[in-house]
Amino acid sequence: MPVKSTLRLLAAILVLLALCTPAPAQQIDCTVKVNYESVGASNKDLLVNFEEDVRAYLNNYQWGPEQLDEKIKLSLDIFIQGASGDNKYMAQVFIGSQRLIYGAKKNTAVMRIFDEAWEFSYIKNRPINHAPHSFSDLASFLDFYVFLALGYDYDTYDPMGGTPWFQRASDIASLGRTSSQKGWQQATTGYSRAQLVTDLLNPTVGPIREASYQYHFMGLDSLTANWQRGLANIARAIERISVARKTLDPRNLAFKTFFDTKYMELAEVMREYPDRNIYNTLARVDPYHQSTYEEFRAK
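The structure assignment produced for this chain is given below.
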């Protein structure tokens, strides 16, 4: 594990120095599912290749200079909500990423986001092209979430290791803000792509991102080798988040996304922790999922 950690830290630094280059293996293993039930038959025909085009775009590109030992598991569930004309569409998308828990032979969710406002253009039989320095309502959306997933993944192996990837997502969000489309603008309420990545790069969120490393690498990855030490590290991560929470805006999307992704796993994994007050801490820090913590505390 230390070797992997060192490699990922080095790769994160290299991202700042190099553009994506071809390599024999890709970093993303993405599954894509598209639901077309809300559009008419003519639009379904125009979208017949959309699912495969998105999958190929994500899986056949080398997103950075490093070959990872395990590809990042990414999933996109796309629900087409409507169409305007022959090539403009509105969709809601669930985006999830996972990584392996070492020694456990199972994955842990690292990122779970529901994006309700994707507007994009798609023309049948026209390939999706990478254009990192210009805005595309289709490609830029996909690029944004790949870089976000990479950032979240790297943060679990090295403290703040995802910063270069979050910065690339932020660059895309800056391009998106020049458009009039929903989701790319800053927002004080609700979900916004631009707001999420702004919050992730805010120094006040640093302790939460560092706690993600402590939770995943020092906690979950250690449970098989030393269960008590792993649980103790997870408890320290929770306490670290509890302290940081006092200075954060309760609407902070980085904070909210962490708990939306991890709350059920947190409740489950701490069942064998000897101090049941850990659930009181979780309920206080994350009141949105208080009922879940209270349920597990009573078990």
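Interim note for the steering committee: The chain has a mean pLDDT of 89. The first strand starts at residue 28 and ends at 35.
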